Each structure stands twice: as structure tokens, then as C-alpha cells.
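User: Hey, my collaborator sent me this sequence without any context and asked if I could get a structure. I don't really work with proteins. Can you help?
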Amino acid sequence: MPKKASAAVEAAEHPKPAESSPVSCGPETEPSLPALGLPGQTQWEWHLEKDEFHFSPEWADIMAIPKHTSWSRENAFWASRVHPEDIDELRVVTDDVREGRKQDFEGVFRILRMDGTWAWMFSKGKRVFACNGKPERIYGFTMNVSRLRLNSRFLGQRSGSDDLNYRSMLANSPDFIVRLDRELFPLYTNAALERYLPKAADELGESTAGELGIPPEQMAFLTASVEHVFNTGQVLRERRTFSTCYRDETVGEFCFWPEFTPGGEVAAVICQMRDETSQVHMERKSRLNEKRLEALYQLLQMEHAPQEAVMDFVVESMTSLTESTRGYLFIPEYGERKKPRMFWSRGHAETLDPEDLPDDFIPEGCLIPTPDPEDRGLYRTINNGDGHNPCHYAFNGKLAVMRYMHSPATDNNRFFCLGAVCNKGTDYDEQDLQQLELFLAGAWMILRRREVLQALQRAKETAELASKVKGEFLTNVSHELRTPLNGMLGMLQLLELSHLTEQQQEYAHIASLSGKTLLRIISDILDFSRMESGKMELHEAPFDIRDTVRSTINLFARDAENRGIEIYSVVDDRLPMTLVGDDARVRQIIFNLVGNALKFTEQGCIFVECALLPDSCGNTVHMYLSVQDTGIGIADKHLDAIFDAFTQVDSTSTRRYSGTGLGLGIVKRLVHMMGGSIAVESQEGAGTTMHCSLYFKQAHERRARKRSPASSPHTPERVLDILVAEDDPVSRFAVGAFLRRAGHRVVCVRDGSQALEALKIYPFHCLITDIQMPHMDGLETARRIREGKIGDIVPSDAVRRVVEQGIPEAAEGKRKGKTGAIPRDLPITALTAHAMRGDKERFLELGMDLYLAKPVILEELNYVLTQLALRVGAARRGAAPEPGLAAGSG
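Assistant: No problem. I've predicted the 3D structure and written it out in C-alpha cell form, which is a compact way to encode the shape of the chain:
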């Protein structure tokens, strides 16, 4: 016996002790591959990137792994159990595939099982490529071939003189062994004969091989083979498929070798037949499994292919997998309309007319089901006929169906399709039907996944469209609501500045407060809608937290004083002077919390505190903010609901406190957007405390932006010639009145085109323009000024009259025939009802210098005018404007 074969036998008969390391290298997980249902065979996948194996459940039986025990997926663990004499050869063939040098591999090796015994394994694998062209995984199967390996060694160990031992081994061999003379008389036959012939070995008597029921074609093969060995003395091997009266089709590996006399003549021929039917069936099933998995893998890659191409591929794969010439797929509810649909193979289309192949029903004669003994309706069917005559004819006699099979496929007991094939070259068997059913089940899961992904994509596109529409709606609503409010509040502010009686002054003030309250409600609703649609963004910039707290609380000073309520604030000295965050949203949080506290406090005080929390480190500042009041408090049962949108503790028709119930909901969302948290502590009748934590960055060498007063001692006062473009007549009148009251000369026009005409007539110091106007909007006007595209502008007489009324000396330019050039760096201020978060930054990026939101507040307007005066003064001196003057306060 060769050295390597001896070592294999030695290793198999004297195994080393089982390793003590546990089988499972992690938590128990179910194998990801489906069970094959074949004894001694397992399916596996080798994921190259993770260097992990995934096995089907049969691996546990092959490796003698105890029940309820998981196994390792690590390649290194299983490689350590391969026999030392086999590991190098196994690594060479697998590395060739893993590195892409070969497409597939196969090999035989020994592995130590968990019960301490050795097993011979035959393994075959094939690589699968990823989209980038590199091998992604290797998949294949492994079979336990220990019995075949061990049974093949008894002849090598036979001693010619030890006839007793020789006959014992022959008698116990699972292979069919017969010793024949030249006349084919069986000199000896072992017990395995009984599996193939009707007589036992001890019942042969004087029967010759021809009298044992062997079919004529097999008898001819036996005669020729024995004659060949007697004549040549050479060993003859051949695999043949045969059948006997006792056995159906059998695949046998025949080996004929001579038995010599001492003189060297052939005395007899020993014929050994190893039954490889099961192995051949397993190999065939493995090939079909491989072919099916490859088809499913290709189907999985067709995610973006047209639906018709996908279904055609399914039908062709189903037909090819079963080695048929034709096939069809019937789906009772197909597509969004849920109508029946037929898909035909190319074999049908190539031999039949289009009118023979309907697309929504199964033609008569194409489906002949076998009666179901359990009366389950449509039944899985195999019909091979007699092998000579057609089972039936289809398509009005155009197609002879020699043999066919079909199977209904179900999902959760719901029939979803029928697959049928016909006219395979050989008979269909249960394995063919199983492959058809497995492929249909796998294809259905992939098609269903495809439908889900397409539905998700459609839902995503719908949601994105809805979000876009919602964003546009919010923008339009904001503009349309703020425009009339601008006129109303502007008129009220002008009324307050006029000479009124004390009672009239009070009326105007109350109306102004009501307008501002309405503005706050509108802003809260729009802010909440933007948060819900995911449009809200935070804009970080340096700000002074002390100024933010102080100026926000001052907004409530007058109201608190009138009600006899004190508002106190304390800011921790350890907090940095300048923080980086969204100043406007921090003001909104403080405003809503203090406003809510003031609304529910009838006497006592409100205390606002800002402190540095101990977990602040590096550039991160963790700030604590609390607002405490001595108001009515909140009952415990209502604490969980106060942050819900549109929710109020008292929602009855007789409630004492008004409001939308949005304030605290907005605060909670803003706090979470800043990475913080909020909590409430309250006692009914004793007051409430809101606790917040907010995260900021610490500013380095950057000045915080503060809200400047309307004017400052060092600000030069200058009369400006201002051009206003505003299409709303009320807003146009109010803004003009504000500017004239501030001492400036003003000309108002209706749109951007009139603004360009006016600028050609007279060199105004600056332009204040609305954004949304007919004919030419504010952004287009600014773009043309910045790009100098004004050559085609010819001032009209109507615009000239308006300019001359506001600026009398403009008429002098007309008399001299002068038409002025518009400077590209003309200061432009956006005066707009587009006041959603982010609008200001967008307008500044598109060419505006300053920004003023509607409704116009006098303090904000005075601040913008101060900035304009400084810019005009610096331009006349030939100096650049001071840093920070190009940003509006809005």
C-alpha cells in the first residue's frame, strides 16, 4: 500500500483525541443556508471578506456535532481540524479560487469530527464575483465519502495465500463481487448479490450468469468484459447504467481484474460492481442546486431590469433547470391591477404563432392535472407517459407533449403562481419537481423583495414630493400672512407715534400687542410645521449668552411690571462670554419658557438661571437653563402631556388661559436639536420649574453678534435718498412713512423694473426691495444691478414723475439729458415676508446686503438705516465699510 494511503488508514483507525475547545465561538445562531435534506451532504458558503463559513444544517450530522450546539463560522477553526497530510493540498486548490486564478475547485481531505473520529470528505466549490469584479464568496457542497474510501482498501491488504481472510472480506463487502470463469459461471458471489438479483448466493447452484435474469444488453457487456480480461490479463474499469428485474435504474462502477495461476495464466475474472447510484444522484442534485443558486443570484442582480425581462428570465431558468424544451408561468394576480398573466418560454414562441399564446389565461390542453386524492384542488404532477406516445396534444394539435410536470407554488397557504415544463429528453423524477418548486419559491422571494423595494422607492419619491410641496406651502403661507400683518402693524406703529389722546394711545397699543401676538402664533405654527417636515435647521454663529438672556427677558418687562410680577435672571460667571450656536433659537426657547411662566403666574416672581454643568470639557460647553415661576403649577397626571403639540392642561370652553399649545412642544424639539434634554418639575398651586440642558461650542477669537440699538453716539446721522420697491400698497405706504419720519427722502415704486428705471433717473443711496413682486422680483433686480445688465432700461414718464416728486433735483438731470449709471455695489436691503429660518442667509448669498423681515419693527428698521448710513459714509470717504455691517439683524 502506498505510504500516503497507509497514513490515511492509520489516521482513520487511530484518531487523535477530540479537541477540548468549544465548537461555538460565539452566541448560538441558526445557519443561513437552507437544508438540502440529503444524508452525508452539506451545502456551504465561504464569505471571503470575513473569512467565514455558513453551512446548511446537515453539517452537524456530518461532523457529529451534539444537538442544540452551534458551530463556529471561522475558517481558521475548521482548517485546524483538517489532517496535516491534506491541509497543504487543500489550501493550494482553495487559494487558486480565492485569488481568482481558477473558477472552481474540488478535492478530497480528512477532517477530525467532534466525536474524535476521522472522516473522508469530498468538497467542490465555485467562486461568485462582486460588482467590482473581485471574488466575493465561494459556494459549494461537501460529501462524506468515508465508506467509499475505506471499502476500497481491502483488496490491497489481501494476501494471496490467506484465502480465508480474503473470502471473509469479500463476503462482507457492500460491493457486488462475483468470480467468473470463461463460461461466465459464478465460482463465487458475495451476499450483495441479493440486492440486484432474485437469488441468494447460496441458491445459485449450477446457474450461469445468463440464467440469473440479467438483461441482454448488460449480458453482452459482461461477456465482452470478461473475454477481454481473459485474453489480455489487464484490468478493465467502466461506469454503466443498468436495470434488473429486481432494481430500477442503477449506476454502477464496474471493475474487472484477472486472478492468475502460479504459472501466470488467467484462471478467473473477479468482477466488482460498486453501486454509485446515490452518489450520482447527489452529484446531479448538487449540480442542479448550483445551477439553481446561480440563476437566483443572477435574478437578484436584475434589480433595475424591466419587469418583463425579469419574468422572461424566470421562465427560461425554470425550463433550463429541469432540462426541458418548453415551460410557462401563470400568475393569477399580477401587477398593480391584479390581473392574471401568462409568461411563455422561447421554445413556445419559436414554434407557435403569437395568437396561440394568450397572456392572461392557460389555454385548453396545456394543464391536465392529476387527480388529487386529498381533494386539494390543483395538484403537483409528474406524467412521463409510456415513453413512446404523446401524453396529449396542446394548441390544437400543434404541440405533442411527451412528458410534463407542473406544480402550484404557495406563500402562507396562498396560491401565487403555477410553473409547468414539458418534453425533457428523459423521464421527470421527484428531484426535478423539487428543483422546480425550490426555484419558484426562491424566485418569488426575490420578486417580492423587488416589489417591496420599488414600492419603497415610490413611497420615498412621494414623500419627497410631499415634503417639497409642504415646504413651498409653508413659504407661501408665511409670505401671505406676514404681508397684511406688515401693513397692519406698520399702521399701528405709525398711529402710536402720532399725536393721540391718552385713551387713543392705549387703544393703539393694545391693537399693536394683539397684532404681535398673532404674529407669534403664526411663527409658532410655521416653525412647528417645519420641524415636523424636517426642514428646520440650526445655524451656528458666535453670540453673547448674557446679552441673549437679558434682551429676551426685557421683552416681557413692561407686561410683568403692569401685573406686579418680578423677573430675575442669573448667569453663571464660569460660562464663557461667547458661545457658538443658534442665537435666534436660544432666544426662542427662553422667550417661550418665560412667556409660558408669565401667562400662568398671577403673583410672585419668575427666576431664570443659566449655569455651567460640570461635564463641560474642551470646546464643548454644557449649559443648564431653568425657568422657575410661582404660578398655578401642573397636576401630576398632566405632566407627561404638556410637551405634546396643540395640548393644554385646560382645554375646556371656559379655560382661563389662551394659547395654541405649541410653545413647549417647539421648545422640546429645539432642545433636542441642540443635543440637550428638558424636564419639568411642578407642584399644583406652588409653581413650575422647567429644566433644560443645551450643548454649545466655545468661541475662539470671534466676536459675538449683538443686537445694536437704533443709534449709537458714534454713528453719523445722515439724510439718505432711499428707493423702495414694494408691490403691496399698504406696506409701501407704511415703510415710506417710517423712512420719512426718520428724516430720509423716499421714493416708492411697485416692482423691480420700475426700481431699475428710477435708479437710472437718480443716484439713490440705497435700495430697499421686496422679494416677491410681479413683473420683476427683488432677486432678479439685485442680480441685474450686481451684473450691470441695465443697458436696456429706458425710464418711463410715469416713473420719472414719481422720482421727481420725491427728489425735486432729479428734474435737473432730465433737463440736461443725463441718464445715470447704476453702481454695482449699490447697498440693497431685502424687505420681505419670507421670514422662515434660512431665508435670510439665502438672500444674502444671492446679492442682498441687509435683510429686514416683515412685519417691520421700528427698532429693526432703525438698525438697518444706521448700517446703511455707515456704508454710504464709508463709500464717500473711499474707505471700506466696517466689518459686520453687511449682515442684517433680521
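In plain terms: The chain is about 35% helix and 20% strand. You can pass these C-alpha cells on to your collaborator as they are.
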